[in-house]
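Structure tokens please, single chain.
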Amino acid sequence: MFNSIRTKLTVTYIVLILAVLLVTSFFLLNTLEQYYIGYQYLILEAAAHPVAREAGPNLREAPNVVTLSNVAEEYGRQYRIRVVITDHRQRVQGDSLRVGGLVGTTLERAEIAAALAGEQGRSIQYSHQSRQWVMQVAVPIIFEDSIIGAVFIASSLSDIYAVLDNVRDFLLLATVLSLLFAGLLGVYFAHHITVPIESLTAATEQIARGDLTQRVSVRSKDEIGRLAGQFNHMAGRLQEMTRQLREFVSNASHEMRTPLTSLNILVKSLREYPLEAEEREEFLADIDQEVERLIHLVESLLDLTRLDRLGAEDTMSMTDIVPTVRNTLEMLKKRAEEKSIALEYLLPESTEPVFAVLHQVKQVVFNLVDNAIKYTPEGGHVQVELFQEPERLLLSVTDSGIGIPPEHREKIFERFYRVDKARSREQGGTGLGLAIVKEIVTRHGGEILVEDNENGLGTTFIVTWPRALGVNTASEY
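Here you go.
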């Protein structure tokens, strides 16, 4: 039962509201009681002082019991209280209660003793005789600057406690009704909250079973609505990644099958047919070419696999990439010369540092320039420039090659995508170079763009790296 979020939320609402109501009721009753008690004290004190003033002259020499009792009876009837007048020895000289009164007796009360000492005595006690709570107040009777007696007043608190009982009953009824109302609201809000969660749970279970088309409706803009939106985004990404993975496996299998098939035919031919030495060398050269192609394909796949692991094995550092770019271009210069292609580059002596993985920067430069050399005819040229802007570094690779049709530019960074599949295979391309470049540049926080050259011949690739702004270069080395 308590495994349900709906039940937990409902119970939580009820418990919280019950706790708030109980605490509020406790403080309210306590405050009301203190208020009424304090107010009653003020009333009794206000009644005692005029009694003391009238009783003073009659108590000075020969106390007149009848007069004092009349005074006590008058104020007792007016305020509905018991009034007792005593002398300085606590002997009762007047009582508002005529029948069964205390006149002539000694009333030893702490309140009276306090009044005779010049203080105001007060107390609240439970009367077993009348079975009710009683408030008692005593004030001194002062005549000619001397304390000659005390006025003792007792009043029932039954009316006050009756009011407090009514308030308590009202609060109890309000608590019960509030709990019922809170329970209904709790069920409603819990249902409102848990229905989207249940939808998310059901959709998650379906995705776990392999149905990647599952989506949930976004009903609000709160945390659950944002969670539903992120779930839909995640499901879409997962569906797309699964599609790409299947396509990747299919393409990888297809790409590997071609050189493996060629190798199989060549090896069987060498084994089954007698060949001249020259023919054997040709076959071995073809085998070597197919093996190189296969190795290059596997290395590219491994590069992508490593990038897919979020580069956990590679740590970015703040560095100047100019030496790495220059060394990579020097390495490619010989390849360009073999095709009679002029490889020119313009690099600064140094640049502001960027956060980068140097061997991945080398891979970006190598893949872009190698592609430019591959698809540039003999006698053409490839130009590389690296220059610095206020917040980024720009690397441009411009060739005078065959160019890229506009309809293919959005897809050239997809894995195994080729503009001209037959020509790409002839030139040893795997269709992974630009995908690797795109992945590396994105992980470095940069961008890669493709543009036509102004003369309409060839293509320009532009790569940006964000600079490490606000970092003191000297402190890092």
